[in-house]
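ok here's Carbohydrate diacid regulator, seq below lol
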Amino acid sequence: MSLTVADVLALPGLESISLRAGDAGLDNTVRWPYVAENSGIAEWVLGGELVFVTGINHPRDDANLLRLLDEACQRQVAGLVILTGPAYIQAIPQRLLDAAEAAGMPLIEQPYSLKMVLVTQAIGSALIESEQLGRSRHDVLERLLAGDYQSLEVLLHRAAQLGMSLAGHWQIVQLQLEGGEALFAQNDTAQVEAQLARQHDSIGRRLRQFSAQHRALLPVLGRAGQWTVLLPATDAAAALVNRQQLAAWLNPLNLRLAPLKLFIGLSAAAHPPARLAQAHDEARQALTAARRFSDRNGLCVYDELGVLKLLSGVRDRALLDQFLNERLGPLLRHDLHHGPSLMPTLEAWFHENGNLVAAAQRLAVHRNTLTHRVQRIEALCGLTLDNSYDRLDIGIALMIWRLSA
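and the structure came out like this:
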């Protein structure tokens, strides 16, 4: 469980602080309080801080306060708290209030008469309690998803005591962020680490908001660029709505994330608590398909897997590798030594249902080049692309190849 700006405003003893603008960010997660002593904060925050701004050590005119707001938005802090009183910052400028409202950045006013030690003590204690409760909730969910329990009844009773209602039917969403390796290859390690941390926090926050909109009231499990979300889904219609909403959220998000990319896999609908481990496995299988098959556009539902369900059910990986090698081994060895050409050609030809013109356009090559490659493929593999049984084998082998890529 995370502590939000709204939670801070509701803490006992902090009744004299008030939200002045930016209520759109009330769900922002507060990781710790930070008192700004310098003219700027960009160099001193990592994201998620509740920043307290005084005028004791540095004058805070309108220009400086607007600069702090701009840096707070850039660094994705949780919110800004302006200490006001007769001695230093007498009042919050209207320009700052308007800018904070437009940015959705919570802007809070705290009177100097409220001692900072009381504020930081209240927030610190709440953070500790929130972290302990969050760990307990995460533990319960992780056990359910792994099927790691002796008594489901006891575990569900513990969940209820922790404020989590798991009654009903669920759909599991598995997400993974990829592309970080390319960033590390091009940029400073520390800079990339900070960028990834900000992206992880932003995605996690968006997922918590998405979950709250669905009244799931369950924590989002996440670590190392992977997240798991439980959404209510009593039937296929509800699952379809979840899929549509996630797709609408994913496409513009990936444009902003580039060169990073977020992938999503969803389980089937209507899983009761006793089948959450099965649902988790379904979501992971769907995520693999979303990552490996470009035609999925980064999102896949377990019900859409088709024959991939059968392939995923083969536990002996050697059988799949053997089938791939028997059907397409010569092509794999050719591309290994001469560069990728025949396997991408076969895949394009297959996706375009044997249409040479469309396949040539997909690969951006001349049709004659494609025709020559297809003839080469048939000669190397001993397959006839017009034969229905050979085409079936090719399709399955291509799926195995993609799953192992």
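fwiw The first helix runs from residue 5 to 9. kinda neat tbh
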